[in-house]
Amino acid sequence: MSIDKFGSLEELKQFFSNGGNPRFDAEFSPQTLMIVEALGAKGAHLNKWWVRTPMDWECPSCKRKKTQIAKLDSRGYASCQLHEHHDHMKDIVRRLFEEISSSREQVVATELAERFAVRTSFAISAYDNTVICADCNKADGLAKLKIKTHQDFSFSPAEIGRFVKPRNNQEHEIDAEIATNIWHENIGVFNKRMKLAEYVAGLAASDAHWYQPSISTSKEVERSANYRFNLRGLKSLHEEPEKLLYNSMPFKGNHSSWRLNPKPMTKGRPTEGQVAHLSNTRGRSWTKYDDSWKCPCCERSKFECLKPSKNNPWVFEVKSILAHKKESDSLADDIKVCNECFNAANHLGREAIEEVKEEDPPINVYFPHSLIAFEELKSVIVARPHSFHLINNERAENVVKTAIDRIVDENYHYSPKNRTDIMEMQLMCP
User: Fold this and answer.
1) CA-CA distance, 338 to 324, in Å (whole number)?
2) Which end of the chain has a smaller Cβ tally under 10 Å, C or N?
3) Above 90 in pLDDT, residue 424?
């Protein structure tokens, strides 16, 4: 769906006078005008981060909304200010790099050495650059002065949230005792980070680094392509415009080849240490479900659903399918299943879609797994611990034929409303 572009500032202002886009803000948005009126202000003083954030944005530190953050300044204006809070490690590394380099008998550092130092400094930083409200950003500096931290230390957004006492439309009060405790928690690691910063700066100053710049990075290629796609209107035709320009599966062969050539069973099983490592490092799904959880489709235990992946020894994923109801042409509530059952449902749905595509005009089926009834999915799966499922091909043929009937049946369709409902449900899935 294409989005109309504004042809003038007047059109933009008219857009906001009709409610505006809550995904970004403006000094003439209904909310900003309401803030000015509520504070009895002469006008509003905004900055770039205020307009770059949604109207319902919430400070990640103090948890206040924009209407609670804005306050009357000394000139009688509504101060609507958000700041980019950052760790000072990049500045520290750059400063140390210059000090060490300039103190050498012979300066050997190059521009690439400096770029290496700056790039590496991000790995030593305690947190990512984060947009927070002006009061939280100011509270960071005041707290450091008050409790006398190291001058190069900075509190993270989450830590600021622990020691500030938020007040609506006013500056924060600071709990010095909590701030002191947080600083003491950080001293040991902060000292190690400072040593790392000095080591990195020394490598760069000695021109003993390993950074080799690319002539053109993949990010630059992507940015350039997106600009050209947008210029020619391709972005309005498809959310992934490059897919309009090539066939992503030219050698896919038979639509059922995914199940006719089963992959071998995984040898071995994860150790207790590997499971603990998974839980601590990438265990969002693993920790969300308790040990009694079983996949409702293949009935494998949580442990049996662990499987090797291309990039990790063991992974655990739970996904949602919008299974088709056998007794009607509507969609069932989403069902949480293991990754292998999700893939099987998707593959079966895609088989049916590809068969119909060869004979009929394209049909909008946004989620292939929605063509397959839950009991049908269960009937074709032969589960194996820690491995890809085997598929009962005789039953699968019948399931695919039924899915084809659902596609071509005039009563089976996706209205724009259904598409929106489905997408909203999918966005809520983990």
Assistant:
1) 18
2) N
3) no
Domain that holds residue 13: 9-80
Q: Is 36 left (phi over 0), alpha (psi -120 to 50) or beta?
A: alpha
82: part of which helix (H) or strand (E)? strand 82-85
Residue that is written with structure tokens 């049909």 in the block: 363
pLDDT band at 122 (very low <50, low <70, confident <90, very high): very high
Q: Which of 128-137, 254-263, 320-329, 384-393 has the lowest mean pLDDT?
A: 320-329
Number of structural domains found in the chain: 3
CA distances to 270, 281, 316, 343, 372 from 312, rounded to whole Å, are 12, 11, 10, 18, 30
Answer yes or no: do 275 and 423 share one domain: yes
- Each residue of 165-201: pLDDT tens digit? 999 999 999 999 999 999 999 999 999 999 999 999 9
DSSP 149: -
Which of 25, 34, 28, 33 shows the shortest CA–CA distance to 56?
25
For residues 359 and 345, membership in a common domain is answered with: yes
* pLDDT band, very low/low/confident/very high, at 416 (cuts 50, 70, 90): very low
Task: Report CA Rg, the chain.
Answer: 28
Distance (Å, whole) CA 309 – CA 292: 23
Do residue 257 and residue 396 come from a single domain? yes
Q: Which long-range contacts (CB under 8 A, 24 or more apart) does 324-327 make?
A: 324/370, 324/371, 324/372, 324/373, 324/403, 324/406, 325/373, 326/373, 326/375, 326/376
Q: Is residue 257 part of a domain?
A: yes
Under 8 Å between Cβ of 87 and 94: no
Residue (of 407, 430, 421) closest to 333 by Cα position:
421
